[in-house]
């Protein structure tokens, strides 16, 4: 009888060991599956976070562009001065702020190629200043042609000068904006527009 009890005890101990090993194995398997699943979803969330971050910046950009179109300058000369200052500061956003909707669309297409970060121009020679040379009224009271002289310089002193002719119109909100720009070929790299021929 003692033998039977010892065998039974031995068998139960063996079953406990197997059961314990099976439980430990299942727990480890469960942990591995959860870890892999977590890593998989964490990777997905990380990509979504980047995508969301990109969307956030695109949304901010769109909102800023829309906000800029709700404000404006109150004179044709003011529009030319903001555009010229945008060249001095190498700031395409400043230039965009005084462009008509149609010119803005064209300019954004150009910027995608020439200056995706919207930093335009060159460090040397750089645009050192501008001067409004002439303002001519047209038959339309809401349209002015402005000739502006853009001056460049290097660390050694004055460099080239370029002319730009800005067609400035008064929009439906009463603000003045640039609807067309004609410029010397050498000025293109400073503006963010690309020369097409």
Core attributes:
52% helix, Nuclear Transport Factor 2, Chain: A, alpha+beta, 197 residues, 4 strands, 2 domains, four-stranded antiparallel sheet
Gross morphology is: elongated
Helix content: 40-55%
Total number of strands: 4
Model regions low in confidence, pLDDT < 50 over at least 5 residues: none
CATH architecture assignment name of the largest domain: Roll
Can you offer a commentary on this structure?
The protein has a 4-stranded antiparallel beta sheet with strand order 1-2-3-4, covered by helices on one side. It has helices spanning 2-68, 76-88, 92-96, 101-114, 188-191, and strands at 126-137, 143-154, 157-170, 176-183. It folds into 2 domains: 1-68; 76-191, Nuclear Transport Factor 2, Chain: A (Roll), CATH 3.10.450.50. The protein is an alpha+beta fold. Helices cover 52% and strands 23% of the residues.
């Amino acid at each position: 009888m003692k033998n039977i009890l010892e065998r039974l005890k031995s068998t139960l101990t063996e079953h406990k060991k197997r059961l314990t090993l099976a439980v430990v194995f299942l727990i480890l398997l469960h942990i591995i599956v959860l870890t892999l699943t977590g890593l998989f979803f964490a990777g997905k969330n990380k990509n979504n976070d980047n995508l969301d971050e990109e969307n956030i910046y695109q949304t901010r950009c769109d909102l800023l562009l829309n906000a800029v179109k709700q404000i404006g300058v109150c004179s044709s000369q003011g529009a030319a001065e903001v555009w010229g200052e945008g060249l001095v500061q190498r700031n395409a956003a400043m230039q965009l702020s005084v462009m008509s909707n149609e010119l803005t669309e064209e300019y954004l297409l150009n910027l995608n190629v020439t200056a995706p970060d919207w930093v335009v121009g060159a460090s040397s020679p750089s645009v050192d200043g501008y001067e409004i040379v002439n303002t001519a009224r047209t038959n339309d009271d809401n349209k002015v042609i402005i000739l502006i002289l853009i001056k460049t310089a290097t660390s050694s002193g004055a460099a080239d000068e370029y002319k730009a002719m800005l067609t400035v119109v008064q929009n439906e909100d009463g603000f003045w904006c640039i609807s067309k720009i004609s410029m010397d070929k050498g000025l293109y790299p400073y503006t963010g527009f690309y020369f097409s021929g």
